[in-house]
Amino acid sequence: MRKRSSIIQILLFAAFWVLAAGCSKEELKGPEVPAEASEPQKGPEVPAEISEGPNSSEVPTEASESQTASDISVEASEPQTASDILAESSETEEHEFKETEHIAELCQEIYKKAAETNTSGALENMQSIVAWLGEQGYAAVDSENQINMTNAEQVLEFCKAVEKQEPAEQTILVAADYGLRKFDLKTEEGKINIVREYCQYDDNGVLINIDTVSYPADRWQFTKEGYLIFEGKYFSAVDYVLTLSDKPEYAVLRVLPLDETCREWNRKYILPVGYGRNNIFLSDWSQEDFGALELYDVFDVFYPELYQRPVPYAADENLNTGKVYQIPEDEFETVILSHFNIGLEAIRAKTTYFPEDGAYEYRPRGFYEVDYSDIPYPEVVSYTNNEDGTVTLVVNAVYPDGKTSKLFSHKTVIRPGKDEDSQNGSTAVFQNNNVGISYGPKGEEANSRENSPMAGENSPIAGEDFQYVSNQVISYFGADETKVQQEGISAENDNSFWWHAERLTKEQWEKIYGGKE
Q1: Phi, psi at residue 212, to the nearest 5°?
Q2: What confidence tens digit (pLDDT) does each residue in 292-314 have?
């Protein structure tokens, strides 16, 4: 590493010395350029559904040797000294610093207000930041893609410039509760270079530049789902020591807007459940046949919503010891029936029930049943109001870490509660939150229910609150969008959902823990 750094320093010093000596004696010769530049190839009015990144092997075609002096127009340039080059670089850095400083000032007041009310991650606060940045002329979006991008047309124009191999520049701001990322994009002859600044709030709510890197885009893709995906690599001394390679970086940003009603459906019914530690949206089931739906996971997901506290039946601190509980039937059935219209016989057939005790056996997820943290997040992209009062939601699983805007999709049918409008309604917030979304709907805290049944109360509320009616996994594309499953194929026995760990069967549990409780 030290050898490489020394070589770079020697080369830079030699280049600087030659440039300084040469520029002080004679003018630099202007480059030969064609008198008439060829017309750029006409591109589509909007970015292609999937636009691959520029080919790094393409280089500008040099002027033909048969051209005469009269075919080439050369304008002598003023001699440029080393001090001029340093001055230009300093001016560019100063301009970028002032722009970042200006952005920081815009965000500071909102951050301070949010800190005072302890809502720095709330949706309303994030919407205010994104909207404010948009009013200043920036293309801005939140880091979780939960808010429509402001000035998205600027980014679309930049994407078209890339396709046409025309020069263009664009800045995209990505706001997060901890700060923001600033991407300065520049394209020329179909190639894209990215300068990324990472800014973080300090204790006084001031944005501080933590890191700035620059890299060419090795991949540039605008997907048919409306996402811009780009990635590249830059040199990092730490990463080079550890991996002997440059450090990769990527961004997955929604550019095209989503209908706000779709976003409301998602925040209310789909996003709080997510794809972690349950298979509600990973398996095919209906009210007629609940299939592989895991009711113990349903209990884990909805217990905090009803009782306003975490599930008290925790795993043993000793990972080698299995923990087993008996949950009173009223408590367990109330949670399951809160959002699923399922008969008691079906519940007891899919669980371990002790009629003599009036209780359900419950084994909390242990060490061997832990999901990966690297999982997609759901995004409702369309909905249909059905004649029977239900609503069919079409949901895409967006997987940023896999660099794809559609890992798989599913259709979920829900029935809004009696007191809910089919378009809006109050917003429930569960505490599963396994997709990393840090702010809740409309800035609300966990939904408080004055009439929520507490443990021991025999008052199932199916029919009074909203219900999940059915789910069907309709397609699976994979990160490269080449593998496709047909509609109606269940996720059972499929490795599509590699992050999800099924609960151990009783036989598996006894084999691992040896019957120890």
Answers
A1: -135, 130
A2: 999 999 999 999 999 999 999 99
Number of Cβ within a 10 Å radius of residue 124: 14
User: Which ranges of 271-428 would DSSP assign to H, the alpha helix?
Assistant: 295-307, 329-337, 344-349
pLDDT of the residue at 285: 97
Provide the token pair at 3: 């050898």
Q: What is the spatial distance between Cα 141 and Cα 182, in angstroms, rounded to a whole number?
A: 11
Lowest mean per-residue pLDDT among 28-37, 124-133, 240-249, 279-288: 28-37
Q: What is the pLDDT of residues 105-115, one digit of tens each?
A: 767 777 667 66
The rounded distance, in Å, linking the Cα atoms of 157 and 169 is 10
Closest CA to 21 of 88, 76, 87, 82: 82
Q: Which residue's structure tokens are 């050369």?
A: 74
Query: Residue 56 in contact with residue 222, Cβ under 8 Å?
Result: no
Residues 388, 416: Cα–Cα separation, whole Å: 11
3-state secondary structure of 396: strand
CB atoms within 10 A of CB 64: 8
Cβ-based neighbours of 300, under 8 Å, separated by 6 or more: 277, 278, 311, 365, 432
Alpha-carbon gap, residue 231 to 159, rounded angstroms: 15
Name residue 252's beta-bridge partners: 229
Q: What is the spatial distance between Cα 84 and Cα 94, in angstroms, rounded to a whole number?
A: 15
- CA distances to 224, 228, 279, 405, 480 from 50, rounded to whole Å, are 6, 10, 31, 11, 12
- Give 247: exposed, middle or buried? Use CB within 10 Å, 0-12, 13-18, 19+: middle
Encode pLDDT of 410-459 as tens digits. 999 999 987 665 544 444 444 444 445 555 443 333 333 333 333 333 33
Give the tens place of pLDDT for each residue, 491-504. 444 457 888 888 98
- Please tell me the total number of residues recorded for the chain in this structure: 517
Instruction: List the structure tokens of 416.
Output: 């809004």
CA distance 401 to 257: 21
β-sheet bridge partners, residue 494:
none
Identify the band that residue 347 occupies on the pLDDT scale cut at 50, 70 and 90: very high
Question: In the chain, pLDDT over 70 holds for what percent of residues?
Answer: 64
Backbone angles phi, psi at 36, to 5 degrees: -125, 115
Contact between 302 and 339 (Cβ < 8 Å):
yes
